[in-house]
């Protein structure tokens, strides 16, 4: 029931950063496989195995943070481009942006 709502929210937003984890029991694996091929980030199969659940959730959280950082980078690029369109001779801002972008890219 949740999957159509998730798809609707995802369609409204350009990029939904929250990964969708689906819990399933062994008998629902064919339905789960179809969901996994679509919108679901990963499956957590019942009965739960603590190590696998922990790894799946950590990976989903890591991906969420990674996507947030990428979105933040894109927002900074867009803001810089708008600034440079308004002030094309602002070499100081350009130098600072290039330096910051280089550090950001090295971090990735």
Offer a quick outline of the entry:
The chain is 68% helix and 9% strand.
Name the helix and strand elements from N-terminus to C-terminus, one letter apiece. Answer: HEHEHH
Percent helix among the residues?
A: 55-70%
> Quaternary status of these chains?
single chain
Report the span from N to C terminus: 37 Å
Unreliable spans are none
Main beta sheet: strand number and arrangement?
A: 2 strands, parallel
What is the topological layout?
Blueprint: H1 2-12, E1 21-25, H2 29-36, E2 42-46, H3 50-86, H4 91-107
Parallel strand pairs: 1-2
Question: Which keywords apply here?
Answer:
about 10% strand, about 110 residues, mainly alpha, single chain, two-stranded parallel ribbon
Structure description:
The chain contains four helices and two strands; from the N terminus they run αβαβαα. Helices cover 68% and strands 9% of the residues. Helix 2 links the parallel strand 1 (21-25) and strand 2 (42-46). The protein starts with a helix and ends with a helix. A two-stranded parallel ribbon has the order 1-2. The model has no long low-confidence stretch (mean pLDDT 81). The protein is elongated, with a radius of gyration of 20 Å. It is mostly helical.
């Amino acid at each position: 029931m949740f999957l159509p709502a998730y798809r609707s929210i995802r369609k409204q937003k350009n990029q939904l950063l929250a990964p969708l984890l689906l819990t399933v029991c062994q008998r629902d694996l064919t339905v789960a496989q179809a969901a996994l091929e679509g919108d679901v980030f990963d499956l957590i199969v019942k009965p739960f195995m603590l190590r696998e659940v922990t790894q799946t959730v950590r990976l989903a959280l890591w991906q969420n943070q990674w996507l947030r950082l990428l979105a933040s980078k894109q927002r900074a690029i867009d803001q810089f481009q708008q600034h440079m369109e308004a002030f094309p001779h602002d070499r100081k801002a350009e130098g600072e942006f290039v330096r910051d972008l280089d550090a950001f890219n090295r971090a990735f």
